[in-house]
Amino acid sequence: MEFAVNSPALDLLFREAHTTHTFTDEPVTDRQIQGIYDLVKLGPTAFNQSPLRITIVRTAEARERLLTHLVEGNQAKTAAAPLSVILSADAEFHAELPRLFPAFPDAKDAFFAERPVREQSALVNAAMQAAYFIVGIRALGLAAGPMNGMDPDGIQKEFLDADHLPLMVVNIGKAAEGGHYPRGPRLDFAEVATTV
Amino acid sequence: MEFAVNSPALDLLFREAHTTHTFTDEPVTDRQIQGIYDLVKLGPTAFNQSPLRITIVRTAEARERLLTHLVEGNQAKTAAAPLSVILSADAEFHAELPRLFPAFPDAKDAFFAERPVREQSALVNAAMQAAYFIVGIRALGLAAGPMNGMDPDGIQKEFLDADHLPLMVVNIGKAAEGGHYPRGPRLDFAEVATTV
Fold it and tell me: At A183, is the pLDDT very low, low, confident or very high (cuts 50, 70, 90)?
């Protein structure tokens, strides 16, 4: 298959990339997180709703509080990671829609007047942005350790508010040698695709 | 910001990429869709659950059926696109978990015994895979036109089954000159990020 992106880039973004549990000590700066965001914010979402929100857990005190809401198996690796971020979905994203989607200023009320609809849309579209964000981390030469093993209610109460739905925690840093497990098997194309 | 991926690649994947409504006549083959899938299947999902399923709408007859379930504004551009795919989430993904996540063969029953939990997990993780898929389309030098403007129940009844939840339809092809609208504004980093 002839890609338009060169092979080293595809290796870095997908083929040689792994969910990482152990990182080097090299710090990760807020400026790097902004660089990743400014790249991947360009990825598409429905109505350009852009519901992803990022909580950068920077201080030792905040990290301690984060650990108490992770499952035990995620605590030590998160304590040792250079940086962790909480990715959440803003269920009130529609307030910004007239600015974000000026082609249809009425979308806010026409499609997103109801909170359950907004929550579902925010979760699905923030998940898309979380995927772009992971690709962006790798584009910067860093590795990502995304985790769902957490108490979402605890995370929400501790760091967010009722309008921000926790999606995942992502550890970020330079991958340490051997800092990942062997890749799990993936489903073959024939198992996931149908042609009609 | 110093990225590890070169600038032409980042331009192609994000900076110069646009949701596309008009494509050239150049066909898109199933082999190309497989090439995209085989790259982006490597992107991470929770428990490696990999719930994304792809329905390639290839025949003229199937495309006609698809059009009837799209909102009017999406019909003409889909009729003219080289290829459309329906992306859906398999709510019964857990059946494959013992194979996909051998490190914890019990995850299937421990976390995903309940259908509503599976549906939510499938939608969120298939959305992540849809985002990787869009990145993969662009990596191949093609353009994507993802759309939510559809009747999901109609799509499900026409092309899927009760276990497959429609996520979006994506038109795929070589972008035509002027085949996209100007990019909508994005939220600034300061609007989405908090440091604690």
Answer: very high
Average pLDDT over residues A77-104: 97
Distance from CA of B118 to the nearest CA of A (A): 14
Alpha helices in A101-165 (DSSP H): 107-112, 115-139, 152-159
Q: Calculate ∠ Cα B88-B41-B13, nearest 5°.
A: 95
Q: Does A17 touch chain B (CB under 8 A)?
A: yes
Per-residue pLDDT at B90: 98
The mean pLDDT value for A108-117 works out to 96
The kind and range of the H/E element at A7 are: helix A7-10
CB A47 within 8 A of CB A104: yes
pTM score of the predicted model: 0.98
Per-residue three-class SS string for chain B? CCCCCCHHHHHHHHHCCCCCCCECCCCCCHHHHHHHHHHHCCCCCHHHCCCEEEEEECCHHHHHHHHCCECHHHHHHHHHCCEEEEEEEECCHHHHHHHHCCCCCCHHHHHHCCHHHHHHHHHHHHHHHHHHHHHHHHHCCCEEEEECCECHHHHHHHHCCCCEEEEEEEEEECECCCCCCCCCCCCCHHHHEEEC
Residue in the structure block whose two tokens are 């990019």: B183
Average pLDDT, rounded, for chain B: 97
The tokens for B52 are 């994304």
Q: Is the pLDDT of residue A105 over 90?
A: no
Q: Name the residue of chain B whose CA is nearest to A1's CA.
A: B35
Residue B150 carries which side chain, given as an amino acid letter? M
Query: What integer pLDDT is reported at residue A184 of this predicted model?
Result: 95
- Closest approach of chain B CAs to the CA of A3, in angstroms? 4
- Is the domain spanning A18-176 CATH 3.40.109.10? The answer is yes
Q: A42 to chain B: which residues are within 8 Å by CB?
A: 14-15, 17, 183, 186
Judge whether A67 is closer than 8 Å to chain B, CB to CB. no
Q: Check residue B58 and give its pLDDT.
A: 97
Contact between A194 and B54 using a beta-carbon 8 Å cutoff:
yes
Residue with tokens 């990743």: A36
Listing from the earlier edge strand, what are the strands of the sheet with B143-147?
A193-195, B52-57, B83-90, B164-173, B143-147
